[in-house]
Design a protein that fits this description.
This protein has ten helices and 14 strands. The protein is α+β, with helices and mostly antiparallel strands and 382 residues long.
Length: 382
């Protein structure tokens, strides 16, 4: 048998086998590349950079809800952990959007952190990103909601505070008219009417003052201020009140301390603290006012011998309209805004105000301000 034709056949067979192997290798490589793309998914062009630039929460998830991109804000909010969305509320919204294809805007409350003891009010927008991905944008609205609640409370409190003197003025006016033939009654009602009118004017003025202090330009005319002068003016303004309440106000020696700020505002802050101390002090007691300079910080302390403040109320004394003893505050004509005004004035001067108190022993309110020589610029607010 002639075997000469067997050599070409074997060559052809080998060629066909080689082609088959190469095809199989290309097919395997293509499948591997597709698998690699699925496993190592990436967001569409341009989206990656946008997510990185977000200050708020931005998250892209794949069809399996695996997070393939998350902004620093999303990580800070604690929305992502181990490559997955942490909160089932957000997962449910993502699944709904993926199924319907329609974008969703919702507000949800989710836990912040692993312990779940602090919650966040999140404004969430979820939308399809192409045919494969879902984009979730989240913004923390907790502070905004808190401020809205504060505004509502503020308006409610203003209405309540103004209603009392306004109602009293109306009733006293009627009483005056009815007692027009009785001079003694007229004088009595007129005196009370004047007192209620003064109280109404005081509340209105304090509301205006507080609104001004919260403005960005509250210290447009800052200048070098002598705290000895501030103490002298505040004591002068409260002298009549101290004499009427038979309380002795004692000031420490001259400090020569100076700050940059507004003299009138600082006098108002110190006046409020001294007036509070006088009104809450028993007759025959003493109120002390002292100034101390230490390590570039000036401390102005007002100490009284009054009933003191319970420990659970110390954190609230600077809140608007807060009164530890509402009945006594009404008798003394307090509006509940005085300490809030003090806090805002001091904060606008770059300082803070603190309180120490013990029931039965008295209280000390301390204003802390940066010394003028430590301020970076004489024309700037510290």
């Amino acid at each position: 048998m002639d075997s000469s034709w067997l050599v070409p056949v074997s060559l052809v067979f080998g060629f066909l086998v080689g082609v088959g192997l190469v095809s199989l290798m290309h097919l395997a490589a293509a499948r591997g590349e597709r698998a690699h793309r699925v496993i190592n998914a990436s967001v569409p062009d341009g989206v990656d950079a946008v997510i990185d630039a977000l200050d708020t929460g931005g998250i892209v998830v794949d069809p399996s809800n695996v997070v393939i991109k998350a902004s620093p804000g999303a990580l800070a909010y604690g929305l992502v952990a181990h490559g997955a969305l942490v909160h089932p509320e957000l997962v449910a919204i993502v699944n709904r959007v993926r199924k319907s294809g329609e974008s969703v805007n919702e507000e949800v409350e989710v836990a912040r952190g692993p312990f779940g003891d602090v919650s966040m009010a999140m404004s969430v927008r979820v939308a399809r990103l192409g045919s494969r991905y879902v984009l979730l944008l989240a913004e923390d609205r907790t502070e905004s909601h808190r401020l809205d609640a504060v505004r509502r409370d503020f308006i409610a409190n203003i209405s309540h505070e103004l209603k009392t003197p306004i109602g009293a003025v109306g009733l006293l006016a009627e009483a005056l008219q009815a007692a027009s033939d009785e001079p003694a009654q007229v004088r009595r009602f007129a005196k009370r009417l004047t007192r209620e009118a003064d109280r109404l004017a005081s509340i209105t003025q304090e509301i205006i003052e507080l609104s001004r202090l919260q403005a960005a330009d509250a210290l447009t005319e800052a200048s070098l201020v002598s705290l000895d002068e501030v103490v002298h003016l505040a004591l002068d303004e409260t002298r009549v009140l101290a004499e009427a309440n038979r309380v002795r106000v004692v000031a420490g020696s001259s400090s020569k301390a100076q700050v940059f700020g507004d003299t009138a505002l600082l006098v108002t802050a110190l006046h409020n603290l001294i007036a509070n101390a006088i009104q809450y002090s028993p007759k025959g007691s003493r109120v002390g006012v002292g100034v101390r300079l230490e390590s570039g910080v000036i401390e102005i302390a007002v100490t009284d011998q009054g009933p003191g403040i319970p420990e659970d109320e110390l954190d609230r004394v600077f809140e608007r309209f807060f009164r530890g003893d509402p009945a006594r505050s009404r008798r003394t004509g307090g509006s509940g805004l005085g300490l809030s005004i003090v806090k805002h004035i001091v904060q606008n001067h770059g300082g803070d105000v603190r309180v120490w108190s013990q029931v039965g022993r008295g209280s000390t309110f301390t204003i802390r301000l940066p010394e003028a020589s430590r301020t970076t610029s004489a024309g700037a607010t510290p």
